[in-house]
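Here is the promised in-class demo. Please do not try to memorize the tokens; focus on the logic of going from shape to residues.
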């Protein structure tokens, strides 16, 4: 994991330190496999019962999905829990690819709304809790990770993660033709979608941004392709000249007005 100095911080602490403490480690963890992978995807599954009055007549209100299991990935109130499906993906990656795969909620940083709720219930002698908006968290996590995975499947509600995807890729200057002198290495960001997923915006991202892109048919297919991708990344050098994108004056003087 990159541990240099950047301006990505929470509550006065570098994000790199927080990830080093909180990102789940693989079973055989050592400094030699401190390869941190940020996994992003929808946290909620599409539920037909929330959209249609007669959906209770369906065998299941959830769509067929290669990652979401309607028998296991359900919250206590009956909602589809894609977040748990992503956690299962991270567990598989940690166990089989020997990396520190994590999702945003594995890291104990509250959003502004969560911080407000905590502050309203804290005692007078407890310090106030600071919040950090989800996109700012994702940008920081992606910046400090050795690899970033975006997962899109037909069963997930993708509004939030779709917006974060564009925000992150734009933050790292990865749009093709961007005149910035620095950028997060595009080969370390992979977008994987199941072959039945349809989104004009997501489908076009690889044409507009310099990242890795592939599709998959089932979990086993996804894991096989992720293994091949990881094998192509140099886990030792990790692009040490620019493992983390640091915002600043990074455009060529030729582009100045």
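The designed amino acids, position by position:
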């Amino acid at each position: 994991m990159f541990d240099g100095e950047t301006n990505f911080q929470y509550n006065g602490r570098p994000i790199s330190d927080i990830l080093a403490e909180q990102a789940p480690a693989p079973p055989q963890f050592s400094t030699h496999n401190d390869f941190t992978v940020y996994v992003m995807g929808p946290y909620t599954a599409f539920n037909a019962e929330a959209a249609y009055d007669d959906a209770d007549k369906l065998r299941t209100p959830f769509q067929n999905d290669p990652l979401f299991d309607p028998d296991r990935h359900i919250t206590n109130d009956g909602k589809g829990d894609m977040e748990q499906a992503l956690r299962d993906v991270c567990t598989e990656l940690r166990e089989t690819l020997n990396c520190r795969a994590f999702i945003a909620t594995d890291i104990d940083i509250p959003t502004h709304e969560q911080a407000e709720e905590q502050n309203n219930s804290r005692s007078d002698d407890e310090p106030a809790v600071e919040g950090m908006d989800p996109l700012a968290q994702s940008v920081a996590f992606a910046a400090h990770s050795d690899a970033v995975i975006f997962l899109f499947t037909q069963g997930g509600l993708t509004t939030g993660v779709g917006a974060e995807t564009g925000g992150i890729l734009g933050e790292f200057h990865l749009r093709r033709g961007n005149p910035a002198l620095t950028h997060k290495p595009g080969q370390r960001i992979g977008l994987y979608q199941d072959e039945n997923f349809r989104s004009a915006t997501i489908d076009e991202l690889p044409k507009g941004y310099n990242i890795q892109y592939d599709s998959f048919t089932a979990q086993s297919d996804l894991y096989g392709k992720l293994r091949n991708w990881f094998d192509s990344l140099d886990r030792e050098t990790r692009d040490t000249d620019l493992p983390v994108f640091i915002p600043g004056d990074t455009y060529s003087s030729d582009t100045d007005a």
